[in-house]
Specification:
Number of helices: 4
CATH architecture: 3-Layer(aba) Sandwich
Strand order of the largest sheet: 4-3-2-1-5-8-10-11-12-13
Keywords: Transferase
InterPro entries: 3-oxoacid_CoA-transf_B, CoA_trans_fam_I, NagB/RpiA_transferase-like
Helix content: 10-25%
Shape: globular
Protein name: Succinyl-CoA--3-ketoacid-CoA transferase
Strand content: 15-25%
GO molecular function: CoA-transferase activity
CATH class: Alpha Beta
Pfam families: CoA_trans
Protein backbone atom coordinates (compact mmCIF):
# COMPACT_ATOMS: atom_id res chain seq x y z
CA UNK A 1 0.00 0.00 0.00
CA UNK A 2 1.10 3.55 -0.66
CA UNK A 3 2.20 6.05 1.96
CA UNK A 4 0.63 9.50 2.05
CA UNK A 5 3.75 10.86 0.34
CA UNK A 6 3.42 8.33 -2.49
CA UNK A 7 -0.25 9.23 -2.97
CA UNK A 8 0.81 12.86 -3.38
CA UNK A 9 3.62 11.85 -5.72
CA UNK A 10 1.19 9.97 -7.97
CA UNK A 11 -1.25 12.90 -8.03
CA UNK A 12 1.59 15.22 -9.03
CA UNK A 13 1.76 13.30 -12.32
CA UNK A 14 -1.66 14.78 -13.15
CA UNK A 15 -0.25 18.32 -13.12
CA UNK A 16 0.06 20.04 -16.48
CA UNK A 17 2.23 22.96 -17.47
CA UNK A 18 0.55 26.30 -16.79
CA UNK A 19 -2.01 24.93 -14.33
CA UNK A 20 -3.24 26.97 -11.38
CA UNK A 21 -3.84 24.43 -8.61
CA UNK A 22 -5.55 24.58 -5.21
CA UNK A 23 -4.39 22.09 -2.60
CA UNK A 24 -6.70 21.16 0.27
CA UNK A 25 -5.47 20.31 3.76
CA UNK A 26 -4.01 16.92 4.62
CA UNK A 27 -2.45 14.69 1.95
CA UNK A 28 -3.06 17.23 -0.87
CA UNK A 29 -0.60 19.72 0.65
CA UNK A 30 2.21 17.22 -0.03
CA UNK A 31 1.67 17.47 -3.79
CA UNK A 32 3.68 20.70 -3.88
CA UNK A 33 6.77 18.66 -2.96
CA UNK A 34 6.59 16.49 -6.09
CA UNK A 35 6.08 18.77 -9.10
CA UNK A 36 7.64 16.95 -12.10
CA UNK A 37 10.70 18.49 -13.71
CA UNK A 38 9.91 20.69 -16.69
CA UNK A 39 6.42 21.48 -15.40
CA UNK A 40 5.54 24.94 -14.16
CA UNK A 41 2.40 25.22 -12.04
CA UNK A 42 1.16 27.88 -9.63
CA UNK A 43 -0.30 26.70 -6.33
CA UNK A 44 -3.09 28.75 -4.79
CA UNK A 45 -3.90 28.63 -1.09
CA UNK A 46 -7.38 29.79 -0.17
CA UNK A 47 -6.12 31.76 2.84
CA UNK A 48 -4.60 34.24 0.38
CA UNK A 49 -1.45 33.06 -1.37
CA UNK A 50 -0.49 32.50 -4.99
CA UNK A 51 2.85 30.91 -5.75
CA UNK A 52 3.03 28.53 -2.79
CA UNK A 53 6.13 26.34 -2.75
CA UNK A 54 7.04 23.08 -1.00
CA UNK A 55 7.34 22.70 2.76
CA UNK A 56 10.40 24.42 4.27
CA UNK A 57 13.36 22.53 5.67
CA UNK A 58 13.50 22.24 9.44
CA UNK A 59 14.86 25.45 10.91
CA UNK A 60 13.86 27.56 7.89
CA UNK A 61 10.16 27.91 8.74
CA UNK A 62 8.53 31.34 8.69
CA UNK A 63 5.53 31.30 11.05
CA UNK A 64 3.89 34.09 9.05
CA UNK A 65 3.83 32.02 5.84
CA UNK A 66 1.23 29.28 6.17
CA UNK A 67 -1.21 27.36 3.99
CA UNK A 68 -4.95 26.88 4.57
CA UNK A 69 -4.19 24.09 7.04
CA UNK A 70 -1.96 26.42 9.11
CA UNK A 71 1.21 24.54 8.09
CA UNK A 72 4.33 26.56 7.36
CA UNK A 73 5.15 26.65 3.65
CA UNK A 74 7.50 28.47 1.31
CA UNK A 75 6.76 31.09 -1.32
CA UNK A 76 8.31 30.87 -4.76
CA UNK A 77 9.78 33.93 -6.55
CA UNK A 78 6.91 36.07 -7.81
CA UNK A 79 4.52 34.76 -5.17
CA UNK A 80 1.89 37.17 -3.86
CA UNK A 81 -0.42 37.54 -0.87
CA UNK A 82 -3.97 38.91 -0.89
CA UNK A 83 -7.19 39.05 1.11
CA UNK A 84 -9.83 36.35 1.40
CA UNK A 85 -12.29 38.02 -0.96
CA UNK A 86 -9.69 38.07 -3.75
CA UNK A 87 -8.81 34.45 -3.06
CA UNK A 88 -12.40 33.29 -3.33
CA UNK A 89 -12.96 35.42 -6.42
CA UNK A 90 -10.26 33.33 -8.06
CA UNK A 91 -12.00 30.13 -6.99
CA UNK A 92 -15.57 31.17 -7.76
CA UNK A 93 -14.44 32.75 -11.03
CA UNK A 94 -13.08 29.33 -12.10
CA UNK A 95 -9.53 30.54 -12.54
CA UNK A 96 -8.21 27.41 -10.81
CA UNK A 97 -7.63 24.52 -13.23
CA UNK A 98 -7.30 21.70 -10.71
CA UNK A 99 -8.33 21.17 -7.11
CA UNK A 100 -6.89 18.37 -4.95
CA UNK A 101 -8.91 17.56 -1.85
CA UNK A 102 -8.91 15.06 0.97
CA UNK A 103 -12.10 13.18 1.77
CA UNK A 104 -13.77 11.11 4.45
CA UNK A 105 -16.09 9.49 1.90
CA UNK A 106 -16.70 9.52 -1.86
CA UNK A 107 -19.75 7.98 -3.50
CA UNK A 108 -19.74 6.09 -6.79
CA UNK A 109 -21.57 9.07 -8.31
CA UNK A 110 -18.74 11.44 -7.39
CA UNK A 111 -20.32 12.98 -4.29
CA UNK A 112 -17.77 14.00 -1.65
CA UNK A 113 -18.03 14.28 2.13
CA UNK A 114 -14.94 15.92 3.58
CA UNK A 115 -15.79 18.45 6.24
CA UNK A 116 -17.79 17.06 9.15
CA UNK A 117 -18.38 13.97 11.27
CA UNK A 118 -21.55 14.53 13.34
CA UNK A 119 -20.79 14.72 17.05
CA UNK A 120 -17.12 15.56 16.58
CA UNK A 121 -15.45 18.94 16.86
CA UNK A 122 -14.44 20.44 13.50
CA UNK A 123 -12.72 23.67 12.56
CA UNK A 124 -15.37 24.47 9.98
CA UNK A 125 -16.00 23.92 6.32
CA UNK A 126 -13.40 26.45 5.20
CA UNK A 127 -13.37 26.85 1.43
CA UNK A 128 -14.43 23.28 0.63
CA UNK A 129 -17.94 24.20 -0.52
CA UNK A 130 -16.67 26.90 -2.88
CA UNK A 131 -13.98 24.61 -4.27
CA UNK A 132 -16.29 21.72 -5.10
CA UNK A 133 -18.92 24.05 -6.55
CA UNK A 134 -16.51 25.94 -8.78
CA UNK A 135 -13.72 23.57 -9.82
CA UNK A 136 -14.10 21.66 -13.09
CA UNK A 137 -11.43 19.09 -12.23
CA UNK A 138 -11.31 17.60 -8.73
CA UNK A 139 -8.94 14.84 -7.66
CA UNK A 140 -9.37 13.28 -4.23
CA UNK A 141 -6.41 12.03 -2.18
CA UNK A 142 -7.51 9.63 0.54
CA UNK A 143 -7.08 6.31 2.29
CA UNK A 144 -9.21 3.59 0.74
CA UNK A 145 -10.58 2.41 4.10
CA UNK A 146 -10.96 3.80 7.60
CA UNK A 147 -8.99 2.60 10.62
CA UNK A 148 -11.47 -0.25 11.14
CA UNK A 149 -11.11 -1.43 7.55
CA UNK A 150 -14.46 -0.08 6.38
CA UNK A 151 -14.60 1.21 2.82
CA UNK A 152 -14.60 4.96 2.22
CA UNK A 153 -15.59 4.50 -1.44
CA UNK A 154 -19.31 3.98 -1.10
CA UNK A 155 -22.53 3.59 -3.03
CA UNK A 156 -23.88 6.60 -1.13
CA UNK A 157 -22.13 8.93 1.31
CA UNK A 158 -23.27 8.59 4.92
CA UNK A 159 -21.66 11.80 6.20
CA UNK A 160 -22.78 15.39 5.44
CA UNK A 161 -22.06 16.00 1.76
CA UNK A 162 -19.77 18.82 0.65
CA UNK A 163 -20.45 18.55 -3.07
CA UNK A 164 -22.55 16.47 -5.48
CA UNK A 165 -21.23 14.63 -8.56
CA UNK A 166 -18.03 16.66 -8.62
CA UNK A 167 -15.13 14.24 -8.09
CA UNK A 168 -13.39 13.10 -11.30
CA UNK A 169 -10.50 10.96 -10.03
CA UNK A 170 -9.44 9.33 -6.76
CA UNK A 171 -5.95 8.28 -5.70
CA UNK A 172 -5.86 6.06 -2.61
CA UNK A 173 -3.24 3.95 -0.90
CA UNK A 174 -4.52 1.02 -3.00
CA UNK A 175 -5.38 2.35 -6.43
CA UNK A 176 -6.16 5.08 -8.94
CA UNK A 177 -9.83 5.22 -9.93
CA UNK A 178 -11.89 7.37 -12.26
CA UNK A 179 -15.45 8.28 -11.27
CA UNK A 180 -17.72 7.43 -14.21
CA UNK A 181 -21.44 7.15 -14.87
CA UNK A 182 -21.12 3.42 -14.14
CA UNK A 183 -19.20 3.75 -10.88
CA UNK A 184 -15.55 3.60 -9.81
CA UNK A 185 -13.41 2.52 -12.76
CA UNK A 186 -10.11 0.95 -11.70
CA UNK A 187 -7.21 2.50 -13.61
CA UNK A 188 -4.03 1.61 -11.70
CA UNK A 189 -2.96 -0.57 -8.80
CA UNK A 190 -0.49 0.32 -6.06
CA UNK A 191 2.61 -1.89 -6.08
CA UNK A 192 1.87 -5.19 -4.33
CA UNK A 193 -1.90 -4.67 -4.41
CA UNK A 194 -4.19 -7.01 -6.35
CA UNK A 195 -7.53 -6.40 -8.04
CA UNK A 196 -9.15 -8.58 -5.37
CA UNK A 197 -7.66 -6.35 -2.66
CA UNK A 198 -9.35 -3.33 -4.22
CA UNK A 199 -12.65 -5.18 -4.66
CA UNK A 200 -12.71 -6.17 -1.00
CA UNK A 201 -11.99 -2.58 0.08
CA UNK A 202 -14.59 -0.92 -2.19
CA UNK A 203 -18.27 -0.86 -1.23
CA UNK A 204 -19.38 1.10 -4.29
CA UNK A 205 -19.66 -0.32 -7.79
CA UNK A 206 -16.16 -1.18 -9.05
CA UNK A 207 -15.52 -1.55 -12.77
CA UNK A 208 -12.52 -3.64 -13.80
CA UNK A 209 -11.81 -3.96 -17.51
CA UNK A 210 -8.73 -5.55 -19.05
CA UNK A 211 -5.29 -5.70 -17.47
CA UNK A 212 -4.77 -3.06 -14.78
CA UNK A 213 -1.27 -1.55 -14.75
CA UNK A 214 0.79 -0.86 -11.65
CA UNK A 215 1.34 2.79 -10.70
CA UNK A 216 4.53 4.42 -11.90
CA UNK A 217 6.22 7.25 -9.98
Amino acid sequence: MLTKEQIAQRIAKELKNGYYVNLGIGIPTLVANYVPEGIEVVFQSENGMLGMGPFPYEGEEDPDVINAGKQTVTVLPGGVFFDSSTSFSMIRGRHVHLTVLGAMEVSEKGDIANWKIPGKMVKGMGGAMDLVASAENIIVAMMHTDKKGNSKLLKECTLPITGVRCVKKIVTNLAVLDVTERGFELRELAPGVSVDDVKKATEGTLIVEGDIPVMQF
